[in-house]
Amino acid sequence: MRSEALTLPLRTRHRLEVVTTRSVEFIDLTDRLAALVADLGIDQGLLHVQTMHTTTGLLINEAEPLLLEDLAGRLACWAPLDLPYAHDDLSRRAVNVAGPRERRNGYAHCRAALLGCTETVMVEDGRLCLGRWQRVLFVEFDGPQRRDIQVWLLSS
Question: Helix 106-115 vs helix 65-78: angle between axes, to the nearest 10 degrees?
Fold first, then answer.
């Protein structure tokens, strides 16, 4: 029987804060995430990112301004601002009501659901494994607001 050292995975959790300035906004997190990997000295592993808000999303895509304009336009077509949303009818809604001055943001929830709330990126040789144009983007649909993002790093 061969004896091998048991290496337990290193798990670290970090919080990133993002302050958005517009109602719809794409914020590139890639450099902040890469710096976190470098600061921790992680050589191999996984980086998992999760937004903590139901009116925001995450995606990996190109951060080219015209593409982001296209994405914002497509998302607006799929969940238009000016449609009636049952979520916004506080006379009917009985759960998760913040009060009478609650934002009317049914459209933002629907747009965020199209993207999802997590992304995972492999780390190899101390760098995020992303394609040539890929970036990790945080997407705000109900800004401006202060937002929290949780980051888990797992390495061995």
Answer: 120
